[in-house]
Amino acid sequence: MTDSPTNAYPAKGYATHAPDQPLEPFSFTRRGLRHDDVLIEISHCGICHSDLHTARNDWGGSKYPVLPGHEIVGHVRAVGDDVSDFSQGDRVAVGCMVDACLECDHCEQGLEQYCLDGGMTGTYNGTDRRDGSPTYGGYSDKIVVRKEFVLRIPDGMDMGAAAPLLCAGITTYSPLKQWKVGPGSKVAVVGLGGLGHMGVKLAAAMGADVTVLTRTEDKMADAKALGARDILLSTDREAMKAAANSFDMILNTIPVPHPVAQYMPLLKVDCAQVLVGVIGTLPEMHSGHLLGRRILTGSGIGGIAETQEMLDFCAEKNILPEIETIAMQDVNTAYDRMEKSDVRYRFVIDMETLA
């Protein structure tokens, strides 16, 4: 079987060329179809906090030009010779990864995000496993993706609103499933942003009794509208003390350094606080907080099968993110607003505006 691609596709999008530069129009070339590829015309792309961090090199390792976007939805426009699972016009999606070895122990368990052979290939700021070219994300009009990493958007699901499910959705769904959240579970969600609001919706849909942990009472109305039963003020020492040993899981979605130790006493024995926001170096924590067999752990995204399961679950339960749709030309303003938490709760770019 040859891996020689068909003719390449001219593409356009928005990229940044330096950490202190804005995103601006960028013309480039998508690879032609390999035998196992799918060409997708992008209709919408969500904006993730990771996009901003990578564009500005907050984590180091950004390879410019950076063309972000890993919450991608659209329609199939062409397929490679060996692709029979997808046809022109299909409603499809792409998340945070576009390749992995598919042969290691993790990949065979459906954990492609933890691929042992060089890690997963990121949808952007990554390197193609076959030809070494840079990967560019979904702030663009089209993308070419290996068929195994293309997902189906369930019938009837709104395409624009579905976009953030490809990161915010699966990032919160995966740990909730891993820690067996269901009817009778008591779950606390820390933070009520893009990830947190999805954590509340999903945990509630799984049957859990959900509490939002926050510093101020002004989140009460939003928390309850999203499905939470209550809020717990982390600034109220007596309330925090009274809530000790009461939660089966804490889903911590805050993406900046903060004192995670304060939440550990809230956990029951053998229960976990799961960090899903990338916060960098953890603040110092006394090991006594782990006594009582309390667990502090982290979780990335989910594998491909689990991501499809999440999409199907959201369609069944009618769960969608709360979004604000923007034009491509407004992406830099959206980044500034996102830094100020001025979005309820996720920006989505309408790619028709790219034209």
- Number of DSSP helical runs: 9
* Element-by-element helix/strand order: EEEHEEEHEEEHHEHEHEHEEEHEHE
Structural class: alpha/beta
User: What is the residue-mean pLDDT, rounded to a whole number?
Assistant: 95
Radius of gyration: 20 Å
Spatial separation of the terminal alpha carbons: 37 Å
Reported for the largest beta sheet, the result is: 7 strands, mixed
Count the E strands: 17
Q: Tell the overall outline.
A: globular
Which CATH top level class of the largest domain fits?
Alpha Beta
Q: Provide the number of structural domains.
A: 2
Fraction of residues in β-strands: 25-35%
**What helical percentage do the residues reach?**
10-25%
Provide structural commentary.
- This protein has 355 residues and is of the alpha/beta class.
- Helices cover 21% and strands 26% of the residues.
- The protein has nine helices and 17 strands.
- Strand 10 (186-190), helix 5 (194-205) and strand 11 form a beta-alpha-beta unit.
- The longest helix has 14 residues, at 304-317.
- The two termini are 37 Å apart.
